[in-house]
Amino acid sequence: MELGRHLRQLRLDLSLGEEQVATRSGLQIEVIRALELGQHAADVDTLRSFAQALDMGLGELFTLWERQVLARRWGV
């Protein structure tokens, strides 16, 4: 679920709608929604497609997620 919230926040930070991410990634909009709600097990290819739709690499997506988790944990 936490990863899903992160994906949604990244999308919103970039002012992208679900439809735009679906179009850019080649993923179905239902998959985008399920990912963001933590209802879809995200495999590497799916996450890579999602990241590319946000104009970032998979590594950057995970780095940003890690920073978010650490900031929340340590109150930074």
Write up what this structure looks like.
With 76 residues, the chain is mainly α. Helix content is 72%, strand content 0%. The protein has five helices and no strands. The protein has helices spanning 2-13, 18-25, 29-36, 44-53, 58-74. Helix 2 (18-25) crosses helix 3 and helix 2 (18-25) packs across helix 4. The model has no long low-confidence stretch (mean pLDDT 91).
Explain the layout of strands and helices.
Blueprint: H1 2-13, H2 18-25, H3 29-36, H4 44-53, H5 58-74
- How many E-type strands? 0
The average pLDDT value, as a whole number, equals: 91
Biggest β-sheet: count, sense, barrel? none
Order of H and E elements: HHHHH
TL;DR of this structure?
This protein is 72% helix and 0% strand. By secondary structure, it is mostly helical.
Keywords:
mainly alpha; 5 helices; single chain; globular; 0% strand; 76 residues
